[in-house]
Amino acid sequence: MNVVAILRSDEAGQAMNAACTDINGTEVSTHVGRLLDVQGDVSLLKSADVLILDVDPRSEEEMTHLRKVLQHEFPGVPIVVTAPEASLQDVRQFMHLGVVDFVPQPITQADLKTALEQVGRTRKSKDEPSVQDGHIISFLKAGGGAGASTLAVQSACLLASRKKAEKSNVCLVDLDLQFGTNALYLDLDNRVGIADLLEAPDRIDRELLSSVMGHHASGLELLAAPRDVVALETLHAMDLERCLKLIRSAYGTTFLDLPSAWTPWSYAAVRHSDLIILVTQLTVAGVRQGRRQIETLQSHGLGDVPIKVALNRFEKGWGKSVDIKDAEKAMGRKFDYFIANDYSTVTDALNQGVALSVIKKKSKVEQNLQKMIDDAIKTITGEEARPEPRLLLGSRR
Ligand SMILES: Nc1ncnc2c1ncn2[C@@H]1O[C@H](COP(=O)(O)OP(=O)(O)OP(=O)(O)O)[C@@H](O)[C@H]1O
Ligand SMILES: [Mg+2]
Known about the structure:
Elements: E1 2-7, H1 10-19, E2 27-32, H2 35-38, H3 42-46, E3 50-54, H4 60-73, E4 79-83, H5 88-97, E5 101-104, H6 109-127, E6 135-141, H7 148-162, E7 170-174, H8 182-185, H9 194-199, H10 206-211, E8 214-215, E9 221-223, H11 237-250, E10 253-257, H12 264-271, E11 275-281, H13 284-299, E12 307-314, H14 324-331, E13 337-340, H15 343-352, H16 356-359, H17 364-381
Parallel strand pairs: 1-2, 1-3, 3-4, 4-5, 6-10, 6-11, 7-9, 7-10, 11-12, 12-13
Antiparallel strand pairs: 8-9
Helix pairs in contact: 5-12, 7-17, 11-12, 13-14
Adenosine-5'-triphosphate (ATP) is lined by residues 141, 144-150, 176, 181, 312-313, 339, 341-343, 346-347, 350, 365.
C-alpha cells in the first residue's frame, strides 16, 4: 500500500516517519507543506493508495480544499486526516465529509496502524462486486409528523407496483432506527431487518441482505428498522455505506426514510443519495425547520446533493393563513411538489398496510405522488437539469 502523507510541520513529518517504520506492506512517503502547496503536484497524489492529510479545521480555505480533493479530485482515494488541534466537533465534521479516519497529533504508530486497518476495511468493501447502477432517493422530514414516512412508503409502493414485472426493483430502507414505522405502514414483519445487520456487520453481503428483506404485495422489498429501540451509535457509517453500495447494485431504485437525528451515518446516507426529498407542511414551524435542514446539509458539505421540497397535506385555501409565496421566501427556495391532504385514504392505507390505490383508485394524493416520483427519477437520470438547492439568499426571517 502506497501511502502519501502531506504534513504541515517538520515535527509532524518526523513523527510520521518514526511511526511508519515496521508497518508491513506499507510504503509511506512524507512531504512537509500544506495541501494547497503540493496539490499542483498531481503525479505525487495520483500515485497514492491512501492520502494522509494534515488539515487545519479552522481554516476555511483548507477545509474547502479538502472537500475538493474528497469529492472531485480524488473521490476514490481513501483519505485519513490529521491535525495538531481538533475538537470532537472538528473530527465529526471530517468524518461527515467522507474521511476514513482521523489521527491525532503527535502521530503514534498505534494510531497510524488503526487508521490504515480502517482503510483496509474500506478498500475491501469497495472491491466487492457492485454495478452501482441503481438510484437512491432519501426522504427527510422538516419536523416530526410532516409525513416523510408516508410519502416514502406510498411512493415506493407505487413505483414497485409499476415495475412489478422487473424482479427486485424497488427497495425501501427504514433508517429511522429508533422510531421506524415502515414495517407497520406496510403490515410487514419487523423481526427481520436492520437489526440482523447490526448483529453481524462484518458478514453483510448480498445473501444476508436479501434474507432480511420483507416482501410486500406491491412488489416492494423492505429493510425494516429494528423492532426494539437501539442506540443510534450501534450503526456505523462505514457499515451503512457498505450496505447502501450492495443495495444500490441490487435494486433499480432505493428509498431511504431518514431519521430526525443527525449522526455520522445519517450524513453518510445523504452523501450516497442521488436526490433528497425534503417533506414539510405549510406551517410556520414546517417552513422554518425545512430551511434549517437545508442549511444543515450545506454546512456539512452536502449542499451539492440535489434537493426537492414536497409540501405535504396541501389544501387550497390554506394560503389564507400562510401564503405559499411568503412560505417559499421564508424557506429560501420554491416548493417542488404539492401532495394533497386526504386523511381517510392515507390513514386507511397505512392502517391496512396497503397501497393507496387499494383503498381508493386514482385519489388526488396518489396522482400527486406519481407526479413526484416521475419528476424525481427524471431529475436523477439527467433528463432534467440537476436541481440546485436554489437558496434565495437574504430572505431569512
Ligand atoms: N397527505 C396526507 N394526507 C393526510 N394525512 C397524511 C398525509 N401524509 C401523512 N399523513 C398522516 O400524518 C401522520 C404522520 O405521518 P408520518 O408517519 O409519515 O410522519 P413522519 O414525517 O414520518 O413523522 P415521524 O417519523 O416523526 O413520526 C400519519 O398518521 C399519516 O396518516
Ligand atoms: Mg417517520
